Amino acid sequence: MTAEIDVLVLGGAGVDTIVHVPELPVPLADSHMIRPGIVTRAGQSGDFVALGTSALGLRTHHLDLIGDDHEGDLVRRLHRDHGIPLTAVPQPCGTKRAVNLVGPDGRRLSLYDATRWAETDRLPEDTVRDLAAVSRHAHVVITQPCAGALPVLRASGVTISTDLHDWDGADPYHEPFALAADLVFVSAAALPDPEATMRRVSERGRARVVVATDGAEGAYLLADDELTHVPAAEPPAPVVDSNGAGDAFAAAFLHGWLAGEPAQRCARYGAVAGAYACTVPSTRVAAIGPEELLAGTAALDARATPLPGTVSGV
Known about the structure:
- This protein has helices spanning 45-55, 70-81, 125-133, 150-156, 175-180, 194-204, 245-257, 263-277, 290-303; strands at residues 5-10, 14-20, 38-42, 60-66, 86-90, 96-102, 108-112, 135-140, 159-163, 183-187, 209-213, 219-223, 226-230.
- The chain is α/β, with parallel strands linked by helices.
- It has a nine-stranded mixed sheet with strand order 5-4-1-8-9-10-11-12-13, with helices on both faces. A four-stranded mixed sheet has the order 3-2-6-7.
- Helix 1 (45-55) crosses helix 7 (245-257), helix 7 (245-257) packs antiparallel against helix 8 and helix 8 (263-277) crosses helix 9.
- The longest helix is centred in the C-terminal third of the chain and has 15 residues, at 263-277.
- The chain is globular, with a radius of gyration of 19 Å.
């Protein structure tokens, strides 16, 4: 069957309320005056990956549970405005939502509404199977309904990626995602030993490539049993918010990976896209485009060690 979708994104659709705070942790006080104000907008992990892959020219489709509520309307409008097809499975508990406390340095603390999901949530197997049958790749967000879709995706033969976010390497909730994916992203922030965790994921699961992002320190790439460091890219503007940087990294990596680029090149794409995302205010949604990605990667190549098999890294 001919592929109609390059990247099928499962899960991670929702709404964030952005609150800028004077510092993190928030100082104890009866009240704080918040500037530039409090803003609610659509955009969680799956939304950001879908926006990122679509902006880079990949045919993208998003599948998730969405409520018949104001937050659901915001999610549907976001996808409609950006031309991203969305299959919205009715969610009686309501659309996922969170409050993001954002400090002056761009760091954030996310508070998720745990009433917006249930243990019994499932993505319909027939829907997952039908979409996977016409997809080249599936990116699975670690939200509640998605673990149950992993066996269906595996049986379909589609390649899978996932982002474990701030996994500590031990929480069993993340393991089904880590072990079922061909390409695994994880933040190094909570990992006592990133390399050990990356190798354990690769040895126990199906992952051909594991990436641990480490903020301003760059990232670590495990591919072909070799661990290499990926340099951080220079942000093209002042850093204002780290929200969505990991999702942007994943989207740009997939852009290169699905084009057959070497893993090290894909990781540099990811570094550039992640740095770009840090310059986008948390009250907006925006993703790097192909021209900006290539220009940023060329700048990164110019100041970093050339990639193997190249003259200048280009």
